[in-house]
Amino acid sequence: MKIFVTGSAGFIGFHLTRRLLADGHSVTGYDGMTPFYDDGLKAGRMALLSAQAGFSGVQGMLEDAAGLTEALRASGAEVVVHLAAQAGVRYSIEAPQTYISSNLVGTANLLEAVRAHRPRHLVFASTSSIYGGNLAMPFAETDRADNPVSLYAATKKGGEAMVHAYAHLWGIPATSMRFFTVYGPWGRPDMAALKFVRAIEAGEAIEVYGEGRMRRDFTYIDDLIEAIVRIIGRPPVAGEGLEGDTLSPVAPSRIVNLGGGKPRELMDFIAAIETALGKKARLRFLPMQQGDVLETYSDVSLLRQLIGTVPRTSIEDGVAKLVAWYRQFYG
């Protein structure tokens, strides 16, 4: 197929694009190459993608409606995967306008381009942060998610609502995927996994928020990509819902959790890094930060019904692969 991927130079976008190319698809990647983080990661990812047959890269911002629409039109894509966004819960407190511009205005521009082009399936990257202040565990897609505790979560909730509206208005099959704590090689340096690895390797103290009591449904990147690839092949069809489905009664639109359904203590994750590095961490315990939640835990029953599998890589195995990549990439 011909597939259009926004955010192709990002962490998840890079891994997905590389997998799609390996599977024989042609991919047009659209990325703004923004300097949110810059330590050679985006350039390294783009170099690897550009060397693969079937890849065409377009540098552009989501806010450039005309450029985005033209790039999608020229790609002739049958599937659109919208991963580009301003990410990060904590940064949304410092730079809120960036999230409004990219995640709301940018997604609206992408939806208008999709309306003009009409792909067979629109796949939208959302987040587990949407569950916000929910206390019932595990988080199920059918739960109400009306209590976001960060602007990042609120903008992603808005994105899901816009995606549903366009699915209803224009009959565009759409799937919104709620990601749970994704980590792995080529990850973002602002995320805890890479920050921990870097600091422990350097003998520096790491900041452990929530006094070490936090639990996360850690999802290894390769598992996530396998799930996305399978979801691409399962566009929602009106009237063909599953048990416990989120298929809309008025649109070919669905929401699905992408997590492992096995939350682990943050301290277990740190212990796995210590083992992989062969070094002990110096810990600095701190209170919870604004916008953060104590625990995430995904109900993956719908995901299992849709694609026949769920993420299953243990944090011990996943962290070992992350550390091996880190030492190779950073020397």
Number of strands: 13
- Structural class computed from helices and strand pairing: alpha/beta
CATH architecture of the largest domain: 3-Layer(aba) Sandwich
The H/E string reads: EHEHEHEHHEHEEHEEEHEEHEHH
Beta-strand percent range: 15-25%
How many structural domains does the protein architecture include? 2
**Ends: how far apart?**
37 Å
Q: How would you characterize the largest beta sheet?
A: 7 strands, parallel
Spatial sequence of strands, sheet with the most strands: 3-2-1-4-5-6-11
Radius of gyration based on Cα positions: 19 Å
* DSSP helical segment count: 11
Molecular structure report:
With 331 residues, the protein is α/β, with parallel strands linked by helices. The protein has 2 domains: 219 residues, 3-Layer(aba) Sandwich (Rossmann fold), CATH 3.40.50.720; 78 residues, UDP-galactose 4-epimerase, domain 1 (Alpha-Beta Complex). Helix content is 41%, strand content 17%. Helix 2 links the parallel strand 2 and strand 3. Helix 1 crosses helix 8. The relative contact order is 0.14. The mean pLDDT is 95.
